[in-house]
Design brief:
- The protein is of the alpha+beta class.
- The protein is built from two helices and six strands, in the order H-E-E-E-H-E-E-E.
- A four-stranded mixed sheet has the order 3-6-5-4, with helices on one face. Strands 1-2 form a two-stranded antiparallel ribbon.
- The protein is globular.
Amino acid sequence: MISGAHVILYSQDAEADRAFLRDVLGLPGVDAGGGWLIFKLPPAEVAVHPTDGPPQHEFFLMCDDLDTQLDEFRAQGVEITRPVSEQRWGKLTAIRLPSGAELPLYEPLHPIAHSL
């Protein structure tokens, strides 16, 4: 039986990105040993999209109110890396992690599955 999902973010500054997840995003976590933090995520869902290119995987955080969330991030000094774009499926943007990587965020306009 599948009991959960484990997402891995590869980082060039894992310690700083872990601190960001803990301190800025407020994700609770556990120490898996030796300071290796694993964080609890909000409810999740998975989609499978067709591609003509090589298979790839993406990780997005979902927000109920993207504009309010972005205001909170700006107040904390978080860099917003993309202007909000209106897609048919939701409002999309991204923030900068301390390592320099982008973390996409979106406010879904589609029915959500994570509460089923």
